[in-house]
Amino acid sequence: MQVTINGRPRELIGGVSLAHAVALLTSAPSGVAAAVNGAVVRRTAWDTTALAEGDQVEVLTAVQGG
Amino acid sequence: MDDPLLIAGEKFTSRLIMGTGGAPSLDVLDRALVASGTELTTVAMRRVDPTSAGSVLALLADRGIRLLPNTAGCYTATEAVRVAAMAREALGTSWVKLEVIADERTLLPDPVELLAAAEQLVADGFTVLPYTNDDPVLARRLEQAGCAAVMPLGAPIGSGLGIRNPHNIELIVEQAGVPVILDAGIGTASDAAIAMELGCAAVLLATSVTRARSPELMAEAMRLAVAAGRLAFLAGRVPRRHLALASSPPVG
User: Fold this and answer.
1) Backbone φ, ψ for residue B148 (5° rounding)
2) What is the pTM of this model?
3) How many other CB atoms sit within 10 Å of the CB of residue B90?
4) Of A26, A40, A65, the CB nearest to B86
5) Rounded to the nearest 5 degrees, what angle is found at the Cα of B138, between the Cα atoms of B134 and B142?
6) What is the mean pLDDT of residues B15-42?
7) What are phi and psi of A55, to 5 degrees?
8) Which of B95, B142, B151, B242 is the most exposed, having the fewest neighbouring CB atoms within 10 Å of its CB?
9) Do B90 and A31 touch (CB under 8 A)?
10) A29 in B contact zone (CB under 8 Å)
11) Cα separation of B133 and B224, whole Å?
12) What domains, with CATH codes, occur in chain A?
């Protein structure tokens, strides 16, 4: 299935978890937030959140700014 | 002198809030932050970049500097509320520097979207510190909405133009029941001192330090200027006079 992670299309196995998608980008144990289709998913729920075809995943962290 | 800054019941010794934006490297940023004496610093929320080296978060954790995530780059209340929610989840703080800008050219706040976002975030339990125009009416509305501080600009972000409308800043200070933090437009140390002399509770700056020829030196200058301006405010300046007043005895 295809999902979009941080604006980039990715081909992933169907039903893969959000935790897996985040791990493609970062292994940071903290300081990262993820949203699926605009809704923030708590870190504790990443393992149990299954992605579906067409999902838009955003993975953010803090950078220098402001 | 014991004169802490209180924001939402939290106590800060330093009245200088230094942002992390614009520094050429983490090392330069680190030295500037230390020289500034800041205890609270802004960070932005951006997409994870797997190729980026080093983390500003690790640096700030090492230095024990508290985080104030911002919503920079948001143009609507909806976007800002979403970024604030992401920041709270990522960083474990419900404090947010709320920025909702109107256009890229001026980066001025969009007052309508700003107030809407502030109301929503307060309802969602955030401690909201809004970056606002130097408009006393909008500042009052933001305070009424439950913001923990109001942060009027001195001049557009990164412009270094100083405080373009000191009269409005004074009006905002006079009426405010929450800390007024001068945010944006500071160019050099005297600007920061003037902000404090006008009665601001604190100054938030980044560019004037991080893009100075020597960020570390400028950070120290800002620390001293904020402290000096605060003391001058508390001391009370002499009135401006049209004519001279001799400071030596006229007779004897």
Assistant:
1) -85, -15
2) 0.93
3) 26
4) A40
5) 115
6) 96
7) -60, 145
8) B242
9) yes
10) no
11) 26
12) 2-61 (3.10.20.30)
**What are the pLDDT digits (tens) for B200-247?**
999 999 999 999 999 999 999 999 999 999 999 999 999 999 999 998
Distance, CA of B35 to CA of A12 (rounded, Å): 47
Instruction: State whether residue B207 sits within 8 Å of chain A by CB.
Output: no
**Residues facing residue A60 across a β-bridge:** A33, B47
CB contact under 8 Å between A66 and B72, yes or no, is yes
Phi, psi of A26, rounded to the nearest 5 degrees: -155, 150
Question: Does A13 reach chain B within 8 Å, measured CB to CB?
Answer: no
Is A31 in Cβ contact with B44 (below 8 Å)? no
Q: Say if CB B182 and CB B155 are below 8 A apart.
A: no
Chain B positions in Cβ-Cβ contact with residue A45 (cut-off 8 Å): none
pLDDT score for A15: 83
Dist CA B7 CA B149 (whole Å): 7
Architecture of domain B5-235: Alpha-Beta Barrel (3.20)
Domain residue extents for chain B: 5-235
CB proximity B173 to A under 8 Å = no
Quote the CA–CA distance of A41 and A51 in Å, as a whole number: 12
What phi and psi, each to the nearest 5 degrees, are found at residue B137? Answer: -70, -45
